[in-house]
Amino acid sequence: MNKVFSVLVLVGVPLSIIGALMHWSSILMFIIYCLTIIALASFMGRATESLAIVAGPRIGGLLNATFGNAVELIISIFALREGLIGVVLASLTGSVLGNLLLVAGLSFFVGGLKYKRQKFNVYDARHNSGLLMFGVIVAFVIPEIFTKTMSKSDTLNFSVGISIILIVLYLAALLFKLVTHRGVYLTDNVAEDRHEEEEPEWGKWKALIILAIATVAVGYVSEKLVDTFHTVGEAFGWTELFIGVVIVAIVGNAAEHASAIIMAIKNKMDIAVEIAIGSTLQVAMFVAPVLVLISLMFPVSMPLIFSMPELIAMVTAALLMIILSNDGETNWFEGATLLAAYLIMGIGFYLL
Amino acid sequence: MNKVFSVLVLVGVPLSIIGALMHWSSILMFIIYCLTIIALASFMGRATESLAIVAGPRIGGLLNATFGNAVELIISIFALREGLIGVVLASLTGSVLGNLLLVAGLSFFVGGLKYKRQKFNVYDARHNSGLLMFGVIVAFVIPEIFTKTMSKSDTLNFSVGISIILIVLYLAALLFKLVTHRGVYLTDNVAEDRHEEEEPEWGKWKALIILAIATVAVGYVSEKLVDTFHTVGEAFGWTELFIGVVIVAIVGNAAEHASAIIMAIKNKMDIAVEIAIGSTLQVAMFVAPVLVLISLMFPVSMPLIFSMPELIAMVTAALLMIILSNDGETNWFEGATLLAAYLIMGIGFYLL
Amino acid sequence: MNKVFSVLVLVGVPLSIIGALMHWSSILMFIIYCLTIIALASFMGRATESLAIVAGPRIGGLLNATFGNAVELIISIFALREGLIGVVLASLTGSVLGNLLLVAGLSFFVGGLKYKRQKFNVYDARHNSGLLMFGVIVAFVIPEIFTKTMSKSDTLNFSVGISIILIVLYLAALLFKLVTHRGVYLTDNVAEDRHEEEEPEWGKWKALIILAIATVAVGYVSEKLVDTFHTVGEAFGWTELFIGVVIVAIVGNAAEHASAIIMAIKNKMDIAVEIAIGSTLQVAMFVAPVLVLISLMFPVSMPLIFSMPELIAMVTAALLMIILSNDGETNWFEGATLLAAYLIMGIGFYLL
């Protein structure tokens, strides 16, 4: 798998540059950009993982928690600069739905085909449920309803306030998990010290250099990718919404999808769930509010107001995950339920 | 009880035919039809139960799961043929509310008067909670919100897609429960092998013949019943909505109401809960989508779009049941809570 | 603390009378009235507590359950008489949010700074979750949606029906907790017989006399307080909504806030949770419906219809509390989550 990504990067980055200079067709370039970003993202993920092992669990957790969605953050910043607020909100929605329903659903389903009952830490499940309820439901629903009659500037002020509260609570959650309550909530299947045992793939400096180069490359390709949205959307009859919810979300999260499923097949459900739900929370409580704050520097600011279909899709997805994960157990049918929900929403966004 | 139903059938079926020929008043005929259907439904229930015992737990579970709401399905098909989409959606709502709030509420309440704490399998409770969240909340709320701005044909396409997903997941749930995970989630009070112990009331052929005749008779009477709705509604000042939510739901589910309560009094809460919540899921995930697909053959097709009061009533009822049933225990107060919710919704639908 | 309240009463009551006669500025009087009511409320609380100990746990529970929100009831009745329906609904919302998010949030947070994990009775948690789901979600959401197309008189009839059902179920909950299932659901950390051990602060007659005088005084000052709302609102640019949600709610519940936090610091989480959630349920299931019924005697009747922001704030707050409290454990981060939700809603109501 890693070899495939290496080849993809070695071929994709030059092609991205050459194709742009030679004005190849937008649709071809769109495909090249997407594949290149997926491959670069896998390098960023491996570099972050190596650094996390070197740095120890606390700093490592922080690194994973901030760099985990770096690709999506970068694509979104370029989209914001172009004023494509609808695409950004849609891709945030797509990330939440993709992680909660598609990544978790595939992990539960595939893992469940091999094992009758798979368990993960029930305390983590409850902790995550509380955060999903706060980050996805309270923090996204309240502005939607309250700003119906608000002026545009009040709406933006409210969004900024909520964004700051979200980021502070996200950092507090890291403090809780990595410092004050580290190791407090353990169950029998202790997977806590996995980091200590592991050998980093790359040394500290090699990882840092790869991370830096890959980030710059992702930035370059992302900017080009955003420029193709308009033409590609017209060619395939896709709306901004569908591009954001499905395409950007899949490209931005492809690496996570793969590793969550691999962990589920190894019966390491703690990690699979952490990737799926942890990623969701990171998007809702860190990436989204950071984008709101960054957008203040661009001509068009982005309020934290999703469209009703986006909001309701995220809310019902969060409720479904809260109920399914609450007992710290999974099986193939719970996976199938999540996938069915994703399918329903996917069709809905396509028809919108 | 069985004797009463036998007499009711022997008197009711001839009266239904004679009254129709002699053009008796619609209100009288409405009452005769309702009572006859309730009595016929009890025969269908007994025949299905006998067949289920003969066929063994797997096929038996499938039989119960598909024939359990046969009466309601038949009435609804005739209403669909008349184009009474509002009545059908309302009666589906009524079935969901009636099973979740009235049947379960009465069972919990009456059972709780005799026993301080009644327990049922907590794994079943969680499995059912996940399905309620999917079948009632995700699958019904998403189309409501997404189709606000959709064209009529897209709305119907979306409904068809969701219906197929619902039916597939319902069948997957049967596969999970009856095949792959049969007996995996057991608790102390094992009521699993009850079927094996029981003697069927009727032999295989007798049960099949009774089932066939009763189904034909229910079909005949249902068709007549639907014709009286308009006149009866005008006479009593009832709307289509109220007839559907309350009258059709009670007539269509009367047999289940009785057996759930009897099981609760016998402290067999596993079965009482299975009837109440199982029936709800069957209506939401099988009867409703099957009716959407069948309606495609009629002049007026039925999308899976409920009115807002119907939707919100089902969603809040499902949430209430999820929270109350989550611990695998019931008492009289939980029953009273469900009944209070039913009362509030009943008054609401009457005033609408 | 008690001494401060004694001084506040001895100074505040005369100042309230003198200031009213001398026509002091509305803003000064508003502050005097608020502080006096907070101090009087603490006397009512202590008198009720003494009476509850004397009367034994059953009648005591009933006393606490009916007099616990007496101050808020009294302020609201005077506001209703003035036709200030918006203020009353807003102050009910504020009480629900204040108790669920601010009182519980501060208790969990402050208690959690001292203790890593604090436990309370998980059966109480589930019982309360069911009531929150019924009292805040079913009983408030259903009329909101159902009355969208109803006539004004039907809306009022529906509100009255729901109010009666709420009061009956609230009394049934007391019967369940204090009589039929008293002591049935115990966990290890038994705090059940705390009442029996305690010495009442005041004798029966002294407590009764203090309760009577304080109630009359609260009534007098509340009437004056309501008169200042209009002027104060204009002076500070506060809307009726903000005064109701924040000011009235804090003044009316100040005493409870203090005692819940003190209990959390003493690691008596059962009592802290009981104050926070018990108070919420009392407001939703007793104070609110009683006010609807009382309003029928005034020129302007109050339907049980909140504004959308009020409703959604209460619904999401209840869902958040249900998820966080479901495991019978708290920690500082759960407190921080509740406080963050309160902050978001507070900003929202200020900007509205």
From TrEMBL, chains A, B, C:
One GO-annotated biological process of the protein: intracellular calcium ion homeostasis
Annotated TM spans: 26-47, 59-79, 85-110, 130-146, 158-176, 205-221, 241-263, 275-298, 304-324, 331-351
Topology in the lipid bilayer: Multi-pass membrane protein
Keyword Iron annotated: no
Keywords: Antiport, Calcium, Calcium transport, Ion transport, Membrane, Transmembrane, Transmembrane helix, Transport
Gene3D superfamilies: NCX, central ion-binding region
Positions of the Sodium/calcium exchanger membrane region domain: 26-178, 207-345
Localization per Swiss-Prot or TrEMBL: Endomembrane system
Coiled coil location: none
Entry superkingdom: Bacteria
GO MF term (any one): calcium:proton antiporter activity
GO CC list: endomembrane system; membrane
Function of the protein: Ca(+)/H(+) antiporter that extrudes calcium in exchange for external protons.
NCBIfam families for this protein: caca2, cax
The family this protein is said to belong to: Belongs to the Ca(2+):cation antiporter (CaCA) (TC 2.A.19) family.
Protein name: Ca(2+)/H(+) antiporter
Gene expressing this chain: cax
